[in-house]
Write a structure and sequence with these properties.
The structure is a single chain. With about 160 residues, the chain is mainly α. About 85% of the residues lie in helices and about 0% in strands. The chain is built from 3 helices and no strands. Helix 1 runs antiparallel to helix 2. The mean pLDDT is about 85.
């Protein structure tokens, strides 16, 4: 099938959309990574606070009233629950970030497939232009009647 000179890449719009989708997926992955990192930092901070509270509770010191001990114990339990919740959130966000990463990689691969199609299209157009130029040169040089071969009819 002969290609018209300068025929546009028919999938250009699709390729552009895929490129934008890939960029959007990369941005989305970055946002989820940041959320996961923030949740991990929060979990680490809460764990440090819990350890500090546990250390203070276990520290030998002056006798404390029972109500204060109960309040500190409840605070320690609450910090433990918050720490577990934050660690769970961080884990969920990490898994979601990994899912987004896979989507970004898939979108990038799809975009690269369109790039390869476009490169093949450009290469075919260059080859077709070179063939037409050579046919024209051959016709001008009188070596062969190129019109008959290219168009399939005798010009006389």
């Amino acid at each position: 099938m002969a290609m018209a000179s300068g025929e546009p890449f028919r999938l250009q719009r699709v390729w552009d959309v895929r490129r934008l989708e890939a960029l959007a997926r990369l941005g989305e992955w970055g946002r989820w990574q940041a959320r996961a990192r923030q949740a991990q930092e929060e979990a680490t901070l809460l764990e440090a606070q819990r350890r500090q509270a546990a250390g203070e509770l276990a520290a030998v010191g002056p006798a404390r009233p029972a109500l204060e001990m109960v309040a500190r114990w409840r605070e320690l339990e609450q910090l433990g629950r918050r720490c577990q919740a934050a660690a769970g959130r961080a884990q969920v966000l990490r898994r979601e970030a990994e899912t987004r990463q896979q989507a970004a990689v898939a979108a990038r691969r799809e975009e690269q497939a369109y790039e390869r199609l476009h490169d093949r299209h450009q290469r075919r157009q260059r080859q077709e232009a070179a063939r037409r130029e050579q046919a024209h040169l051959d016709e001008v040089a009188g070596r062969r009647p190129a019109r008959e071969e290219v168009t399939g009819h005798d010009p006389w």
